[in-house]
Q: What sequence folds into this?
């Protein structure tokens, strides 16, 4: 992998970074199994025994609300002969009973009973293997590493910004699943620049400025004025106006951006589709953009929020789950709610698949990133190579 | 593979044993290509030229009744440029004519003629590559090895027990095919314990005791009494009552077990669906259970028999063929006939797929086998590792 | 690969040559990326900006008619981040605009403009990576090598023979796509002998003699007389009568063969379906057979021509495109037009799939080629091994 670690700054990665199955295994080990991964929503874990599952490569993690109100996470692998203990992707249980031989695990993962294992069986020695888990502002993250990276700075940045949107008390009104024929990094790169927005995202571009995103160094007086006005407006509502953007090269960014004039939400007509969520009262809080590497991004408007979760399937395939959240009791038209981001996402998957097909071919060479509008792709690649190499140095 | 050979007794295998493609290749070489494999039924080979085919990994073997009444087996690979010579999985032919260039092979596999090969062509030097084949009690086995293990002790044990069921003169009334997303060993392990029966097999559990199976060390006075009574009853009919159970760690087991009170066959209501097969006259002979490693198990009741044949497809995929046999002239309702074992098998495939998904994930660790009810899984793993390592030592 | 290079003359290749993924990669590098490949038809490139695409393994090449009237070929990989720049397999454009970030390439592949790349961006340094391309007699060939083998001798042989058929001014009336479960060499071997024709190709055999093809050393006075008569007839029309057959072991063969008595075209009833193409006036010019290794063969009758193009997909899979061409203004029944060669091709794919299944199995051994009717398979294998080993020596 020395080729990767010595890539030229300002250029896309060598082909092998996107197509080599061994490199993909390293991605799973050093990136996905070593970092915090977005798993799902607190809103889905609203009572003891309520659980969701999240796949990471060939792994599946159960995230469950315990009797104690805390959230727990476990590998979905019975300590007996390894069966999945869940049969559904989400649900509510009193305990996890393995469907194979009925070993019973508490919500905290401890083995409660195992029938017919003999008198010498040390029940207390067995459990569902634990996985680190954290909640913040209604989002749930897991980490497969024994010694996870710090989560607190992220939570400290996210909570005051996303917290008022009340995602923890929201409901998931729409959920979409996609399978995309591209390496996961191709999807993250696509998300890390809006160079392609004007040409590909008409619905998104109705409400969003073409500039102002991370990695876009263009100046635009009209945008600057809109941002200054909006920040004053947000501050007046008690919302922190400053971004937190990959501090120290870290893995997350949270930024509230203004929408175009006449738009108070990322909808086709700019009008809100539902009442403000959480403790928000003003329908116009711009759009709070979040990204957490390697597998999540989302936008939170006052009336709805959208999250995108990536799951690598193999070196050339990535699964995506899109969720649309609204206030728990809001009545919404689901098509209208999903209109902008369903279209935008599907446009992106098509771009990603065409991009990946070209990357995988003999004619591909690393190409130059735009210093004007692709600096955020560059910083993602830096972060990625550091994750890959840092783990390598640690190994 | 040294990791495998040093596994801890009493524990399931390391992950690689189920998921490593190289290990799978070793399984094909050292287990499947080195042992007797169940191929099909004498009942399908009831006239000269009647043939069946059986797949083993990427190999296909033809088994055919010769003009001489003996059964022959050949690789289904033309000696010319390698084409399959059969187009159908079974049928009746006078000779095997390769569909590509019409080379003609006798039922004994010898090349009879090859058109347009020139005057110097030594027809007698070519043939379909032979495969070892044996018949016993209506079951047909093949072995791809040049020097197959002994077959006679198995035949000597099976013939007096299964022979009276008359499978050789039966007909296959129902045939089901399944593709299961699991390594073949996961299916064998599932078959080697009834720890999961009470929780997963309601139809099977109607007629079958929960105890008494190989590897279950529980005692149960009611079962013991039923067994003693049944054995006296079987002996009176001239049926050997004693089991033959993996003698000397060998690859087969044959055991006649009693059914629950009120059940004379493994049917939903316990009543026979067809007249007794073969030379049996009493409708109640319990259920004769057979297993031959690595690819077959079956149950023979007085009125019907069921056989299960495994075909490994790749490290994570196994094909299964289930056959239901009855007396040749018996009129049966096919749904009723297959009801118990179709349900039981499909329940097992679902358990196996969930088990395999967990085994393939990062959270899997070898787990403890029950000393009470899983000793037969342990003895399968012993046999398997011996096959793998014994061949390795011989290589 | 030394095993391959030392195969026994007169025998088919060892199994690995057809099934080993590493060998397949070598095939792509040393055979497909090193030789001229049939890409498509001049008839599809009848105006500036008209383009077609051709896949070679994971590569895609754009072939386009330039403003200058010349044909150009480029890798379909944007020089920015590698996206495919075409969205359709063929069409007409003024320029290639990458759908991802709208980089604009001229038909000659040069980068015309790249938005938002900053003031220091050296537009002139970027282009679609060029691919060698040649046209002859209405057929278009590309070569991925930096230093392609000589094309001119092929063109010099093809032009006077195929040129009069006017393929450059024809139209593609029917196009069929197939995916065949066999290594590409299995398809070429199938094409290189007519040993299988009598047994498998009833439609083809209506119009075609069983003898006379390359590699068939049989003599047949009736055929010899037909050939002599036909050659006199062709010469009188100004058509060269002599074959050009893999000169010096080279990669192409062009031969005009007579059809059976009463047949003037390879149709079911022998009658032409359309007026003579190009400058031909006589409806009876036999059938001009062309093969160019590794990926094309075709037949040109007076009324219609058929081309077959192979695209390797993976070691065990090959895509095929069949095109049927007629004079541009000819009105034809498409089913009648395709009747003989659609049937013949589909028969061949089935033979190839059965052949490949046998080759991939444990029972396969290299088999003897017929010295009477398979010498052309032998010469293909010689050419292939030379390509493989010659490149190896050069590497």
A:
């Amino acid at each position: 992998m020395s080729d990767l670690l010595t890539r030229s700054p300002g250029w896309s990665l060598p082909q092998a970074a996107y197509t080599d199955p061994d490199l993909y295994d390293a991605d799973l080990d050093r990136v996905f199994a070593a970092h915090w991964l977005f798993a799902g929503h607190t809103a889905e874990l609203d009572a003891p025994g309520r659980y969701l599952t999240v796949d990471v490569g060939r792994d599946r993690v159960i995230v469950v609300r315990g009797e104690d109100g805390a959230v727990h996470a476990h590998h979905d692998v019975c300590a007996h002969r390894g069966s999945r203990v869940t049969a559904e992707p989400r649900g509510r249980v009193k305990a996890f009973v393995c469907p194979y031989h009925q070993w019973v695990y508490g919500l905290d993962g401890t083995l409660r009973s195992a029938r017919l294992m003999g008198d010498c069986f040390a029940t207390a020695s067995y459990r569902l293997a634990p996985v680190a888990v954290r909640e913040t502002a209604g989002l749930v993250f897991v980490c497969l590493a024994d010694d996870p990276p710090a989560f607190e700075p992220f939570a400290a940045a996210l909570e005051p910004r996303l917290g008022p949107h009340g995602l923890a008390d929201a409901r998931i009104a729409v959920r979409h699943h996609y399978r995309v024929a591209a390496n996961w990094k191709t999807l993250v790169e696509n998300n890390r620049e809006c160079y392609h927005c004007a040409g590909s995202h008409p619905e998104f571009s109705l409400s969003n400025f073409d500039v102002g995103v991370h990695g876009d160094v263009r100046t635009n007086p009209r945008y600057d004025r809109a941002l200054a006005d909006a920040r004053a407006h947000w501050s007046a509502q008690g919302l922190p106006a400053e971004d937190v953007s990959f501090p120290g090269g870290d893995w997350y960014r949270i930024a509230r951006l203004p929408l175009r004039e006449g738009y108070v939400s990322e909808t086709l007509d700019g009008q809100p589709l539902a009442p403000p969520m959480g403790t928000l009262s003003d329908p116009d809080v711009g759009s709070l953009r979040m990204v957490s590497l390697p597998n999540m991004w989302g936008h939170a408007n006052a009336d709805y929020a959208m999250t995108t979760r990536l799951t690598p399937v193999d070196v050339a395939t990535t699964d995506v789950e899109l969720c649309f959240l609204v206030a728990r009791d809001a009545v919404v038209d689901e098509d209208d709610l999903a209109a902008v981001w369903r279209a935008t996402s599907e446009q992106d998957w098509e771009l990603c698949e065409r991009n990946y097909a070209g990357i995988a071919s003999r004619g591909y060479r690393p190409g130059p990133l735009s210093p004007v509008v692709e600096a955020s792709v560059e910083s993602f690649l830096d972060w990625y190579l550091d994750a890959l190499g840092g783990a390598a140095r640690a190994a």
Observations:
- The interface with chain C takes residues 33, 57-60, 75-84, 87, 99-102, 116-118, 120-121, 126, 128-129, 144 of chain B (CB under 8 Å).
- Confidence is low (pLDDT under 50) at residues 391-395 of chain B.
- The first helix of chain B runs from residue 2 to 5.
- The longest strand of chain B covers residues 170-180.
